[in-house]
Design a protein that fits this description.
With about 210 residues, this protein is mostly helical. It has one domain: Orthogonal Bundle (Helix Hairpins), CATH 1.10.287.70. It contains 6 helices and no strands. The longest helix is centred in the C-terminal third of the chain and has 36 residues. It is elongated and about 60 Å long.
Length: about 210
């Protein structure tokens, strides 16, 4: 005769391996709930990040098409362009800080790229349109807002269709600065964002020094 099994214990071959204790004894605590990753899980952070990125980019393009660009290309234009590039640099530094604190650093890095790159390109598109308005012969054809946006994208992508190219000395100097800025933006800024993402992931891994200190 097989003796009866104690209550609350699983019987091998009867209850199956998946069932253990049915009725925990007195003083037995329930297992803690599974921890959720910070910032939520699933598709919600991705959807929110994509929405913010879309609205931010669309907003900057809308401002570009609404700005009064009928003013001539002067020294104030160059100063404004330099100030705008400085703002982009400060924005990149701020985005790096956000990545280092973000629960989803990769998503935050994508948002940072989607904010920094369009802003940088729109600054030069504005300058190109103003320069073309002051000197219609500065480029192979006069530039309107769409042409200016098209030109900065082709320069950034290094496509070089050749339909629009700088002709005057000022236009060539401005385009040269733009190309150097593109190289810095691609090589340095993206590397900074990637390093920040990797550092944030290391600090959030279980057993990391920062996690143990917390």
């Amino acid at each position: 005769m097989i003796p009866p099994a104690p209550q609350g214990r699983s019987i091998a071959g009867v209850d199956g391996p998946a069932r253990t204790e049915r009725h925990p004894g007195p003083g037995t605590a329930d297992p803690p709930p599974a921890e959720q990753p910070p910032g939520g899980s699933g598709r919600r952070p991705v959807v929110l990040g994509a929405t913010r990125t879309l609205f931010t980019t669309a907003g900057m393009i809308g401002v570009y098409f609404l700005l009064p660009l009928d003013r001539g290309f002067t020294t104030r234009t160059v100063i404004g362009l330099a100030a705008g590039v400085l703002v982009v640099g400060l924005l990149v530094a701020w985005q790096v800080r956000l990545i280092l604190r973000a629960p989803h650093p990769a998503l935050r890095a994508v948002e940072g790229i989607a904010l920094s790159v369009p802003l940088f390109l729109l600054l030069f598109a504005t300058a190109y349109v103003q320069l073309s308005g002051t000197d219609p012969g500065a480029f192979t054809e006069p530039l309107d807002r769409v042409d200016g946006l098209y030109f900065v994208v082709t320069v950034f992508a290094t496509v070089g269709f050749g339909d629009i190219s700088p002709v005057s000395t000022v236009a060539r100097l401005l385009t040269t600065v733009h190309m150097v800025g593109d190289l810095v933006l691609i090589g340095l800024v993206l590397r900074l964002f990637l390093a920040a993402v990797n550092r944030r992931r290391r600090t959030t891994e279980p057993g990391s020094s920062s996690g143990a200190a917390a």
